[in-house]
Amino acid sequence: MVKKNIITLKIVAKALGLSISTVSRALNNHPDISNQTKEKVSAFANKVNYVPNVFARGFRAHKSNIIGVIVPNIDHHFTSTLLKGVIREAEINGYKVIISESVNNEQKQTELLQTMNQFGVDGILLSLAKNTKNVDHILKMMNHIPLVLFDKVSTKVPCTQVIIDDEDAAFRAVEHLINTGKRRIAIIKETVNSFISEKRYLGYLKALKKYDLEIDENLILSTEDICMEEGKKLANVLISLKNRPDAIFAITDEAGIGVIKTLNKNKIKIPDEIAVVGFCNSVNSTIIKPKLTTIDQPGNKIGETALKYLLREINNEDEINHKTVEIKTNLIVRNSSFKSLKKNKV
Amino acid sequence: MVKKNIITLKIVAKALGLSISTVSRALNNHPDISNQTKEKVSAFANKVNYVPNVFARGFRAHKSNIIGVIVPNIDHHFTSTLLKGVIREAEINGYKVIISESVNNEQKQTELLQTMNQFGVDGILLSLAKNTKNVDHILKMMNHIPLVLFDKVSTKVPCTQVIIDDEDAAFRAVEHLINTGKRRIAIIKETVNSFISEKRYLGYLKALKKYDLEIDENLILSTEDICMEEGKKLANVLISLKNRPDAIFAITDEAGIGVIKTLNKNKIKIPDEIAVVGFCNSVNSTIIKPKLTTIDQPGNKIGETALKYLLREINNEDEINHKTVEIKTNLIVRNSSFKSLKKNKV
DNA sequence: CTGAAAGCGCTTACAG
DNA sequence: CTGAAAGCGCTTACAG
Questions:
Q1: Is B86 near chain A, with CB under 8 Å?
Q2: CB 3.0–4.6 Å: which of B24, B129, B182, B196 could bond B177 by disulfide?
Q3: What does the pLDDT look like over A201-255, one tens digit per residue?
Q4: Taking a C-beta distance cutoff of 8 angstroms, is the pair A68, A118 a contact?
């Protein structure tokens, strides 16, 4: 099916016995045009449902009002919240959003950057594919189009970056455990190469330091692939210690849920004997019993903020100050770390 | 920041001492052009990183290669899977996807349809906002642009529609319960106005009928707002019956999980005394104990299929046969309805 | 206050 | 095999 019934300025002009220029100006509310003409034109345009042709307009202005967004995976709940923030903020500003997935593939990411450019987007919001090594193609693209990194970022790219304040979040999670009286706090983190894991670990250390707690290497566990199964395994390691921890901070909810499962299985009281904190505020964190204390990452806020900074770069001609914006998180206290006086709801 | 370093055909032509026409044809692999010229042109184009201007191209062709997608809510896991399918299939065909949310607001949906049109999309994929009453604006848009409904659809719109085969799914869920020996099967459904609930209920009835089971009105429960809390409540109603059911089919996982919670609380053995089946294959369905038997809806497949039909309408000039495509689901048997011989994993 | 004309970057029928 | 020219629909400096 070919697009049909397309009304152009020419048609409107002819119908009203005016020139194309006048109709164009009338529709754009140009001061030169008389009110009478404006009214006549807009009445007719509404009647025939005239819609300006974006291509003709974008063609002249070199502007599409479309933002390209590349994320590793769209069907990850946190990603959806990021996108929701981006889309909402974009629409407020008259932009639409094209979304693509790199599926955590660096090669695919490179291609997408290129096709985004071909589709004439005015700017790009990028959340990096895991293990992105070579950022040359990103630097190259930045010569053509404004680009902002968000969520999954890299210090190798000199651009504005919008991220979670992971260190602060971890700090507050651990501080909360300390406030509830815990002193031997274990951490389950990732082995290597993970920017996020590193930041959360720093927050953990910072909290221990602030409260003069001993750093016990036995309580610092790392895993290659942080998931529920690994959480279970490492919890087993921790409860086998002669000197057990009294709290476990898992840097993901999945691992935290694994920890709870192991503790439950071993009839260890949560949080009295061992408290547990996760990170992410996944839906699952409210399904497990006891419910998991966790960090809520305001995805909407990150997406929204990233878009705001991108628009700023798109619209300002002056030199840009690239900055790293860290969005604060919310600690959500639940029964895995704090027993309320009221009877717990199921 | 203005887009910069834009290389045009004109620049390439001048640099090579050729005409714009020749360069254009060489780049588009036109048979008239000699191989020698083609090579020379493409080598240079690569070198200077020439990217054809989409607007100029789309402008002539009345074609953007962009598909507009409107969904009620992007941060709903099932929606993400739909979108994943759409995006993947779109990219295979050289299309990009603009995504917007109606946030289940009919007014917003109307506006979005209009802005999608303004952005020059080649076609629209629409999943209806809840309680969409007036479809006039949709019918009107269909005069201009091909449109396919998916997931949340309406018989009031004469277009191709891609949906889950809900009736078949429910039928198979109930048949599975019957096969495990259950005879008094309850259903928890929605009160009114829900297309989906109705279809699932029909499947339920069909299965009972096929196996000559009595339809007991006491076992057919409805609720306005189907959620976990309601699942809990209605399960309480069911276990209070003198003649209890031996299985409960909840038409959503949330309700199914509520049912399990109530049964667990009352120390009713699942599935021996009462089996439970949900619908959706949400992540939560694997977190609850016992794990919930449920229906997996292949969101990717629906999204992919919807896009395929839309492209067909975009590309074919001939008359379209609007049809309703029903995608088959998968029954996922877990411990809430079937006890395997092997020891259940945690 | 209004109109004629140029031009955005491309493709393509027409001419050679 | 290659080029000159028209035209896609719009905006806007220029002229009146």
A1: no
A2: B182
A3: 999 999 999 999 999 999 999 999 899 999 999 999 999 999 999 999 999 999 9
A4: no
d(CA A213, CA A242): 19
The verdict on B137 touching A (C-beta cutoff 8 Å) is no
- B3 found inside a domain: no
Which nucleotide lies at the shortest CA–C1' distance from B6? C9
Rounded to two decimals, the pTM is 0.85
- The pLDDT confidence band at residue A1, using thresholds 50, 70 and 90, is very low
Domain that holds residue A226: 166-297
Cβ distance A119 to B66 less than 8 Å, yes or no, reads yes
Of B90, B70, B150, nearest in space to A91 by CA: B70
Structural tokens at position A17: 């016995």
pLDDT in tens, A297-345: 999 999 999 999 999 988 875 566 788 999 999 999 999 999 875 544 4
Q: Region B96-106: what's the mean pLDDT?
A: 95
B122 within 8 A of B144, measured Cβ to Cβ: no
**Inside any domain, residue B339:** no
| C1' of nucleotide C5: residue with nearest CA | A21
Asked whether residue A15, judged by its CB, lies under 7 Å from any atom of the DNA or RNA strand C, the reply is no
Residues B103 and B130 in one domain: yes
Residue A4 forms part of a structural domain: no
Domain count, chain B: 3
Retrieve residue A227's tokens: 């998931």
